[in-house]
Amino acid sequence: MVDRSFGDLSLAAWYDALNPWGPGDDFYLGYVTSARAVLDVGCGTGRLLRRARADGHRGRLVGLDPAAAMLVQARRHGGDIEWVLGDLGAGDWHAEFDMVVMTGHAFQVLLGDEELRTALRAVRRALRPGGRFVFETRNPGARAWETWTPDRVQLATDADGGAVRVWHEVERPVAGERVTFAETFACATWPTPVVSRTTLRFLGPDALSAFLHEAGLRVAERYGDWARGPLTPTCPEIITVAEAGS
Question: How far apart are CA 116 and CA 204, in angstroms?
């Protein structure tokens, strides 16, 4: 689960352990390796782009993230990848990329209609004609937030034997498209737990398509899970591949 709390340097160091490589990463990696120039919006620690480079990608790779602490982790690994601090307004990119990706449900932090429109317009400007924007958002029909309860504790460990526990608590009642929750991180060596409050927006497929169309992006592919299963009313994901018009 991606949120702004990883702007904290101590938490950013734990990001990859708390979010191990999985089927979603494999899905995106296939798209990234097929494109000459890629912009990863909300790149976090840069794991996806670093893996693409290690697997032989020789084109341009740019990682963009608003959290300086995350980019500290990304830059520690070296390599010839561009790391940019900020949001989509930070780069004046015009038809420079064949692919823009937005992973880790980062799309859901775009809460307001105008914020979302501004972001999608920036994505469209950054793409060459025919370029693709690939992202995912949780399907509201699956009601994932109902499982975000304090009794479901995630544990991550590092090579030195350190451990961090993470749990969530949703603010109720949940009404409309937005879900707000507290995320707590606890470690025995920290003086106190770190608690962040995050709001995510759950948009359905029709609303997503309308926003994309308004920005000049056409839905080319859509899936309900990382195995490319069909989009159903209760599938876990809405995975979208949108294409930029000419």
Answer: 14
